[in-house]
Amino acid sequence: MGDAPGAPRGELRALTSVRGIAAWFVVFYHIRESVAGLGGWPLAIVAHGYLAVDFFFLLSGFVLWLSYAERLRSGGLRVVPGFLQRRFARIWPLHAVVLSGGVALALLLAATGRHDPVDFPFAELPLHYLLVQNWGFTRALAWNDPAWSISVETAAYLLFPLLAFAIDWRRLPSWTLLGMIAVLLAALHAVFAAAGSDSLNADIPRFGLLRCLIEFSMGTIVCALWLRWRGSALVARVAAGLALAALAAVAAGWAPETLLVPVCFAAALLALALTSGARNPLEAAPLHWLGELSYATYLCHFLLWKAFKLAFVAAPGPVGWPLIALYLALVLAASAALYGWVERPAQRWLNAAAPKFRRPSESWGLPR
Fold this sequence. Notes:
Blueprint: H1 13-31, H2 40-46, H3 52-75, H4 80-111, H5 125-129, H6 147-166, H7 174-194, H8 204-229, H9 233-251, H10 257-275, H11 285-292, H12 294-312, H13 321-352
Helix pairs in contact: 1-3, 1-11, 1-12, 3-6, 3-8, 3-10, 4-6, 4-12, 4-13, 6-8, 7-8, 7-10, 8-10, 9-10, 12-13
């Protein structure tokens, strides 16, 4: 199929909403073993909450390709610093604030004789502030564990201009793009299979960077496919069907998640983008608001859970639902505060000082 006509103005709100849902899956994943009475299929679902990160990687590639690929190609090397500054403004200020909260918590524990050198290794702290902790420099997750994905995303941002300069997916036929996705999927699966694992969550310090780069690249291709297929209800139905079939196959144990979960998420991303604006229930205002807060939710919940347990949980073991509800409310409140008082103001201030890009012909309002 040829390229579709110019994209409509407006936001792909469904993608923002799903980002919020994915962030809360990660929250429940990290607290699952402490929730009293959580078992059966609900526990089985949240026990796979780590897979939300794979959706984030795909979505990031999609958004960056749509927002910056053409501007980088037309502007050349001179616009790369501005692109990188904008990505820095997007992820680092909130990361630094949350990590500093973790440092304060670690110092408090040390002052009371409860320092944990495994969770809070001070020698590795500079790597975490520089967001290079998951580039092969550490052997275990530490400090704010979810920030490992921000670390590998930083590597993807640094490499993205090279991808944009080297390849214009628009010039390749659709079957070639689908073939490239298949090659990337096979490579990702082969890496984990060679290590004897069928879980995408295996050995994050070792495989997390490659996991991100491959899925991020897939996301850029999904964006290119959406640009030429948008408006096609048939493709949306096929993509949704493929996503459901891949999910069912993984749930039934017919194929490993390292092979089919990225297929499921890539197809779901395409279907969501194709149906965005078409009375999609995922575009409801509350879900969209959660999506706006999702980065803050993702970054703050892990350390907040550690602090919450120290303050409110007297003994190890299951935590009752009243306390769980209180913790979830605190995560939501902290997310809103960090979004409104740290994330957005810092981003606006740093972007104001960034070199200006040529304005695109269309405005998308995509996840930043």
